[in-house]
């Protein structure tokens, strides 16, 4: 790689060519070829593009390399007994006319912000995956929350990239788009119109859902142009519970209606898993019902923080064919939507409290929120997730770091309680990592056990055997 800080080691001309696209797995190569001379970048390719091939060129003066090396070596000539000779050869890398060519001057390196990378990287990855799969588009359960809204906006970003590529004359992209939509004469011009052809969203509401989330999902779908459906899952849930009742003679109740914690959790899981079954059903048959060929890839919308704490149901609507946000934290996703708020109706989504809406409403309002269930905020989880993975912290070392990071917000006792609660949630739910949907990964804090985090997925949940000696005891003593 080339950077200004490594100029001393790049005394010469450097050509960097990178693969573009994916190999059908979790890795996406972003391209971005470059040409450098003596540590200065003089040409840079496009990062995150739907073009299969990109060629950049630059004119360099090799005498600049000779001068640079001579300048760098000059202080050592007196102490080096071997003189530096210039060797002449009977061939040339250029001809006499090249002396009139202007050389490329150093350019300012173009960096994408993290929010821009969220918009572009997963979108290009989705395009590669869609082309390889032979499917006709995507289906996303759209709940009106930050996570599913982020997945939807990434698909819209893909449609923007595809329309720009076709407008720029990329015939390969045009052929691929026509093959995906099943129309050999189609030419995409507007992202919203293309989105309506390759993207289907569905709001899966129940008696526990609010009108607010339904409206947010509908408004976002209308703005990006997806084909949107509203589905009520109550009939399917009651049918499944009826089967259970016919066998056992019992009908479970929510906690607010006097049910036990086990009953309450089971009723939430039924709703979540019904949504997954319906998502795959509509992915297979929704285009058939409209008289179009092909099926749809089901998109997931589970973020890193939910995976880290296990705050999701195995094989629920977070289970999908692929997940564009599976390697991104909630805090980064909020920043991404904040970037789009001027073009898309994201303001209400950002300000709404995160909730799964799986428990009965109270006076028509949500009685359950994610952060209350997890006993910590998503911003706290973002810090904890980086310490756990990047800093390789266990319970005690994480506590030692957080008492300084959060000294103005929490007492040492409160920090200890949060650390202990997090590692309990992490350990009892770590087995869920084995069922995670394949996801695009761009951050080193990913908890995915398939590639990025090879720690065990079964733990001694009281942390008696896996924690360093005295670590759990120290935290327990503080509590």
TrEMBL record:
Transmembrane segments: none annotated. GO terms for biological process: NAD+ biosynthetic process. One of its GO terms (molecular function) is NAD+ synthase (glutamine-hydrolyzing) activity. Keywords: ATP-binding, Ligase, NAD, Nucleotide-binding. Pfam families: CN_hydrolase, NAD_synthase. Signal peptide: none annotated. It catalyses: deamido-NAD(+) + L-glutamine + ATP + H2O = L-glutamate + AMP + diphosphate + NAD(+) + H(+). It comes from the Eukaryota. The keyword Cell membrane does not apply. One of its GO terms (cellular component) is cytoplasm. Residues 1-62 form the CN hydrolase domain. Pathway: Cofactor biosynthesis; NAD(+) biosynthesis; NAD(+) from deamido-NAD(+) (L-Gln route): step 1/1. Its EC number is 6.3.5.1. It is an enzyme of class 6 (ligase). Homohexamer. In the C-terminal section; belongs to the NAD synthetase family. PANTHER family: GLUTAMINE-DEPENDENT NAD(+) SYNTHETASE, NH 3 /GLUTAMINE-DEPENDENT NAD + SYNTHETASE. This is Glutamine-dependent NAD(+) synthetase. It comes from Takifugu rubripes.
């Amino acid at each position: 790689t080339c950077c200004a800080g490594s100029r001393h080691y790049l005394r010469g001309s450097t050509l960097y060519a990178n693969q573009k696209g994916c190999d059908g797995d979790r890795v996406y190569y972003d391209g971005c070829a470059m040409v450098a001379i003596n540590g200065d970048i003089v040409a840079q390719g496009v990062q995150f593009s739907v073009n299969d091939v990109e060629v950049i060129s630059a004119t360099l003066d090799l005498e600049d390399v000779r001068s640079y090396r001579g300048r760098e070596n000059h202080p050592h000539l007196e102490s080096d007994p071997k003189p530096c000779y210039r060797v002449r050869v009977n061939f040339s890398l250029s001809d006499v006319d090249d002396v009139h060519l202007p050389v490329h001057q150093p350019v300012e390196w173009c960096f994408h912000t993290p929010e821009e990378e969220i918009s572009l990287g997963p979108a290009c990855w989705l395009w590669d995956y869609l082309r390889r799969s032979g499917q006709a588009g995507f289906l996303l359960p759209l709940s009106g929350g930050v996570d599913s809204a982020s997945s939807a906006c990434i698909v819209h970003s893909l449609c923007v990239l595809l329309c720009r590529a076709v407008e720029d004359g990329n015939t390969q992209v045009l052929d691929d788009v026509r093959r995906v939509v099943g129309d050999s004469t189609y030419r995409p011009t507007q992202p919203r119109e293309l989105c309506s052809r390759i993207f289907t969203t569905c709001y899966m509401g129940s008696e526990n859902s609010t009108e607010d989330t339904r409206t947010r999902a509908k408004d976002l779908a209308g703005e990006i142009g997806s084909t949107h459906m509203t589905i009520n899952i109550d009939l399917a849930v009651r049918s499944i519970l009826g089967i259970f009742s016919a066998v056992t003679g019992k009908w479970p109740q929510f906690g607010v209606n006097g049910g036990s914690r086990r009953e309450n959790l089971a009723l939430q899981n039924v709703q979540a898993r019904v949504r997954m079954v319906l998502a795959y059903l509509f992915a297979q048959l929704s285009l058939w019902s409209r008289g179009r060929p092909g099926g749809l890839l089901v998109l997931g919308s589970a973020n890193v923080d939910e995976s880290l704490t296990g705050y999701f149901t195995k094989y629920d609507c977070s289970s999908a064919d692929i997940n564009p946000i599976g390697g991104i934290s909630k805090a980064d996703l909020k920043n991404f939507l904040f970037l789009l708020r001027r073009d898309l109706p994201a303001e209400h989504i950002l300000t709404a409290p995160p909730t799964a809406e799986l428990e009965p409403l109270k006076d028509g309002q949500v009685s359950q929120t994610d952060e209350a269930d997890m006993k910590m905020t998503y911003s706290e989880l973002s810090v904890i997730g980086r310490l756990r993975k990047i800093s390789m912290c266990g319970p005690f070392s994480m506590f030692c770091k957080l008492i300084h990071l959060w000294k103005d917000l929490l007492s040492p006792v409160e920090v200890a309680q949060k650390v202990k609660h997090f590692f309990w949630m992490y350990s009892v739910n770590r087995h869920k990592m084995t069922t995670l949907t394949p996801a695009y990964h761009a951050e080193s804090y990913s908890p995915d056990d398939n590639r990025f985090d090879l720690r065990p997925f079964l733990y001694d949940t009281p942390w008696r055997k896996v924690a360093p000696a005295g670590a759990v005891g120290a935290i327990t003593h503080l509590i």
